Amino acid sequence: MKDVVHNPASPSLPSDARQALAVSAPRMLPAPIRWWQEVSELIKFRLTLLVLLTTLIGYCLGSGHPIDGLRALHAVVGTALVAAAAAVLNEVIERRQDAQMARTRNRPIAAGRVDGLHAAGAAVASAAAGVAYLALFTNFLAALVAAATLATYVCVYTPLKLLSPWNTWVGAISGGLPPVIGYVSAKNAVDETALFLLALLFLWQMPHFFAIAWLYRNDYERAGFRMLVVVDATGRKLTSQTVFFTSVLLLVSLWPMAAGTTSLPYSLGATVLGSLFLWTAIRFHNGPDRATARALFFASIAYLPLLLGLLVLFWK
Fold first, then answer.
1. Domain membership of residue 37 as a residue range
2. Is 40 inside any structural domain?
3. Number of domains in the chain
4. How far apart are CA 82 and CA 87, in angstroms?
5. Is residue 185 exposed (0-12), middle (13-18) or buried (19+ Cβ within 10 Å)?
6. By the 8 A CB rule, do 114 and 42 touch?
7. pLDDT score for 23
8. Is the CB of residue 270 less than 8 Å from the CB of residue 310?
9. How far, in Å, CA of 201 to CA of 53, rounded?
10. I need a surface site. Which of 5, 100, 208, 255 has the fewest CB within 10 A?
11. 160-150-138 Cα angle (round to 5)
């Protein structure tokens, strides 16, 4: 009996009881670890970390040399407050849908461990603090772009998920703005490089999102989300668009070469990375299944930091 109580995987328990124990198991951890797990789930830590990475990359490209480390930190802190707020507000709005999806039903708000009203209040305060922080310690333009990012993500993308497959396009716009926040924090101007960063992140997100949508299409359908893979059950529109956006991404990634802002090693690296990414997209299109979708997802995860690293390393 003692072994049954402490082992959620014990085959002597019914599957629903094992699942309940598995969900509650993290609550037996020390309080600081439990607190961090809840907070990281609320703010979508991995997504927020990616946002901050792209913000910092944007700042580095806009600042020139030497980089003002303190100002860069201000840009990252302000963006972090806004990004965390956006994640929490998204979870507040989608709490009912999250509760119906296997990959999200254990989120603190969906699972009922955190009160949605309290979370929304904290998120609004965080958003206001982040926008104000950027205005005070970087510039007004950065604060304006951050506010636009928040509004697009929370007020347009989130409700649109229940209405139209165009939600992915809108979500990719909001996801493409963080490097622009970083760039204008340093440059205080929107120019062709800022637009390049927006285009780069926008295009990258499309195959990345499409891979996720394919892997969790049953979840999305159950929750009532109008994703492209749900609206078009054959998946041909989704896989075709995956190849299209990955192809355009390869071309756009070479813009710095044409503009003369990077050296030859960047162009060679971008070509190789983009070609490999495109190859996984074509494989997914030719044989859409969980294996090719997962390969596309992991390719997208590897592609972005490698490309951004090349940008910073070889930026003139």
1. 32-201
2. yes
3. 2
4. 9
5. buried
6. yes
7. 42
8. yes
9. 12
10. 5
11. 160
14: in domain: no
Q: Count of H helices and E strands in the chain? A: 18, 0
231 and 258 assigned to the same domain: yes
Residue 69 maps to a domain: yes
Q: What are phi and psi of 262, to 5 degrees?
A: -135, 165
170 plus 222 within the same structural domain: no
Residue 15 falls within a domain, yes or no? no
**Same-domain check for residues 217 and 293:** yes
Amino acid at 29: L
Of 170, 201, 232, the residue at which a domain comes to its end is 201
The contacts of residue 84 (CB under 8 Å, 6+ apart) are: 42, 43, 48, 123, 126
Question: Same structural domain for residues 173 and 218?
Answer: no
- Give 155-207 as a DSSP string: IIIHHHTTT-TTHHHHHHHHHHSHHHHHHHHHHSS--HHHHHHHHHHHHHHHH
- The whole-angstrom separation of Cα 47 and Cα 54 is 11
Q: 236 vs 65, 123, 145, 210, 245, CA distance in Å?
A: 47, 38, 35, 12, 14
Token pair in block for residue 276? 């490999």
Q: Among 5-9, 64-68, 84-88, 165-169, which is the least confidently predicted range?
A: 5-9
pLDDT at 30: 61
pLDDT at residue 26 is higher than 70: no
- The reply to whether 181 and 44 lie within a common domain is yes
Q: Where do we find the tokens 């309080």?
A: 31
Looking up tokens 């668009």 gives: 241
pTM across the whole model: 0.87
From CA 269, how far away is CA 302, in angstroms rounded?
Answer: 13
Residue whose C-alpha is closest to residue 227's, from 214, 240, 236, 239? 214
